[in-house]
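Weekly modeling sync, notes
Attendees: S.R. (lead), two postdocs, one rotation student

Agenda item 3: backlog of single-chain predictions. S.R. asked that every request posted to the team notebook include the full sequence so nobody has to chase files. The rotation student volunteered to paste the first one in as an example of the format we agreed on. Action items at the bottom.

Example entry:
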Amino acid sequence: MNRARGSGPARPQETAGATVVRGATADDAAGIQALPGLSNSTLRSLDRDLATARSSEPRAPVVLVAVAASGGAAADEPIVGAAFGLLQFDEGHVLDLAVAPQHRRGGVGGALLAALDAALRGRGAVALTLEVREGNLGAQALYRRLGFTAEGGRPGYYPDGEDALLMWRRAAVDHGGG
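Predicted structure, as returned to the notebook:
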């Protein structure tokens, strides 16, 4: 899913099982909104982000979805995950990642992050950063497996007052095999 700076939308990529990661469109809004765990800020800006994500502008948001490929029409394929990212200077920021509960621990989150990493690095990112809830040990384990390291925290970062762990992945990672 590597995108050259300023190029058109990324092509779909096969992932674990029968899941495909692709660029999101406005038609995906309802399926994305149905995913549990997306932040309120992601949900508030979803329509705007979907409208600008397909832009050739390098600073436009990257919005990807994972769909359960059924062999039918794309509209029939349920969205099982979504990832949101943004290029800030030369850093890729993972804004949000959500996977439907029944599809967790099956490679969907890793495939979304790999595709997001490739898209952001294709726009010029030399590193990726993200915030994760201190209490979300499952997500932290995923990020560590994918080469992220904890490099700090943000006290009271979340609306409920929970602290965030700040994680980075500075080196490019070979995403072979999704």
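Discussion: group reviewed the output briefly. Strands lie at 13-14, 19-23, 62-68, 79-88, 91-99, 127-133, 149-154, 164-169.
Action items: rotation student to repeat for the remaining queue; S.R. to check formatting next week.
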